[in-house]
Amino acid sequence: MSELYQRLTDFNKDLLPDKVQLKYEAMSENAFRFFRGTCHLFYEDLAAAEPLPLSPLAWICGDLHIENFGSYKADNKLVYFDLNDFDEALLGPASYETVRMVCSIFIAFDNLGFEEEKALKMAQLFLKTYSATLAKGKAISIEPRTAKGIVCNFLTEATKTTYKDLLKKRTVSKKKSIMLALSDERHFKLEKSLRRELKSHINDWIQTSSDGPYNYKVIGSVFRLAGTGSIGVNRYLFLLKSTNTKNHYLLLDMKQARPSSAQPYVHVQQLQWETEAQRVISVQQRMQNVPAALLSTTVFRDKPFIIQELQPVKDSIKFKLLDDYRDMYQVIDDMAALTASAQLRSGGMQGSGTLDDLMSFGADQGWQEAVITYAQHYAVTVKKYYREFLKDFKKGKYGIDSDGRKPEGI
């Protein structure tokens, strides 16, 4: 039994067994997808490595990589481009956010077939813009009016997508009504008793929560699959219908929150959150310029969940679809400024370094080379892990072989 196999299966042992198989299958796609699904390995290895240069504490999303930025509609109805995944969020050294992001650049660009020199230039660009934004001490935000290049095009297209388009993708019409589509490969049918229990729970949440949408009721629910690292947690999608506006619907996502996989390896005193879901949305609200619409929490069957609206505009830029190096340059530049802005926005809050601390860190160039060197070396380690994982996955060691068959005893 290999050490890697043990580390992966130990971490995933408490997830839903049938969905873990789908997580492993997703991780087998390429080294970047493997990296996205193994945040715990990254922090475990970082804790055991030679320490990075000291950096101020900051609120970090914890799992920063090039596909954890995207568009979303905020409470003020504007569409923003920003960090959009906070499942692993916690208080930690500011440099931890940058080293994971830079590592993702090396892995993703290698996966896309770009030479190492171009990846290195992108990594250097990210750290240069991140540092310059910190040093200025002024957070920025990106929405259609302030966006440039490919991000501007991305947000402009996002604003054109309507709820009708989203419903068409996620639902089917039946007898003059609509229901959630089970033909979608990310939707799974729920047992009738669980469906009833969930319906009652969300209807109660709508009635009692100040965050809930008024005058709506649940008319359908499915199990939902999304992401990579979060595959295997309990996650549900609800179709809500307005009780006072004809043919008006909402889609609500409800995802189980687990402890941050970074926390055991980040030796910083953390706040005692009421629930893990409260940790996620609290950090999200302090790091994003304007919080996402209908962001809330609940507890179902003694497990904490994050609730948010499933939006037609919420999407991530897919780097594999970008073939223009100049487009990537603009996107990485924007991501760097947004990363620094999120840390500035939450600076001085409950243990985070002050704005002066973060500005001084940005003005200091001495730490950047250490971050790039570690990220380059760790990208090689990830590719080595991925090759070992893929070999064992194809043999069926992770519960299913490359032909989709379960080995005996599984």
UniProtKB/TrEMBL annotation:
Q: Which InterPro entries match?
A: DUF2252
> Which domain of life does the UniProt lineage start with?
Bacteria
PANTHER family on file: DUF2252 DOMAIN-CONTAINING PROTEIN
Task: Indicate what this protein is called per its UniProt record.
Answer: DUF2252 domain-containing protein
Organism in which the protein naturally occurs: Mucilaginibacter corticis
